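Structure ticket #2291
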Amino acid sequence: MADFDPVTTAQQLATAYTQPMQDQITRGNQDAQQTASALTSLQSALSTFDTALSGLSSSKGLRQFSANFSGASGATATASATAQAGTYSFYVEQLASANQIVYEDLPAVPVALGGPLSVNLADGSSFNLNLVAADTDSDGTISQSEIARAINQADGNAGKVTASVVTVGGDTKLLLSAGSTGASTAITLDTSALPAGSLKDALDGGRELVAAKDAVVWLGGQGGVRLQQASNTLTAIEGVSVTFTRAMSPTEDPATLTVASDDAGTAGNVQKFVDAYNALTKAIGTLTTIGNPDAGTGSAAFATDPSVRALTSRLNTMIRQSFGGHSLMDLGVKADRDGVLSLDKDRLNKTLTADPTALDDIFGKVSLTAGTGLLGSLDQYMNSWLKSGTGQIATRQATVQAMQKSLTDRKTTLDDQYQSAYNRYLQQFSQLQALQSQMSQTSGLFANIGSTS
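Resolution: structure written out below.
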């Protein structure tokens, strides 16, 4: 019998014994990894599409309008989808301003604490200062910086009044500024509980730097419709927001605002949807590609996956739905034989000219509670795939993870089986090798005896 190595022989036989199961585990791991990677890619594609839906569903809407002032108007404007094309004129009599008061004669050194100090606003709100708590060094006195800190940190302030200390030429001043504009935010200090003395006198002697005023704007020019409000941003015209930055002189002509349909901007928003949808379907197409054995190409992870195929079918159905009597095709959005969308801008403009609400009727809005139109339907369907814990992506990822854990456990068991088989074969062939060696020795002994007889 030819010499052999028990270790090598044991390894070969143990490997042959466990190889079929090892091949199954290897293929299972490869499939699980491919599926996990494909699920990650699908999740990314669906999330990107869903984010695009939310962006298109912003408060400004898909329908775009331009809003522009003529000349040096001292105003800016924006228009949302609810605006109406038209021309408006404004005369700005007065801008809204935030009250600002400076206290210049406060004592230069800390003064003894007095009673409570109240900060009052013209709208009737007020808050009290905790001067004792503001005395951070606990010396029974309070400085200007401590008064400012007490105002800023007071319960009930919440940004209504901001206090700061300003030093000019060696003189320290306490500056109070209203947190918003308007006549109702005028600031006064109630010092009635403070004892007579330099602190009370100084706080009673504040000098107004900026008066608290409402904005006064005339729609249609002087003598038109008088609008008075606390803010310099006017939203009285539906869908239009106008911000004024300067008041006009009595002889100045009104500022003219023109609101017009922005066809390019509207088409751009619809094109964003088209691009987002095409990007999603392209990503899904890559994940469902069927291989060609003749060309040596393999199939993608979801080539025969019924759920992903159903996803594609559902998307194709949803974009062909009608909302408010209109469909995407009415807006000039059409699909070719491969499902790729394109936009006919001329048809879009023609439809919106005939029915200005068609765009919003079809697309609607994304909502956490009750979405509307195509965007709402698509967002709800995306949620069925993307929802954390219960969505199809999450449940399938959990299944893949469980499969990978099972394969890991099977690999551990198989390793034990391999080691057991290896030990058994090694023992058997080691014994056989010893027996073979013994027989060789015996055969050599008989040969020697024969040669000497």
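Closing remark: The first strand starts at residue 65 and ends at 69.
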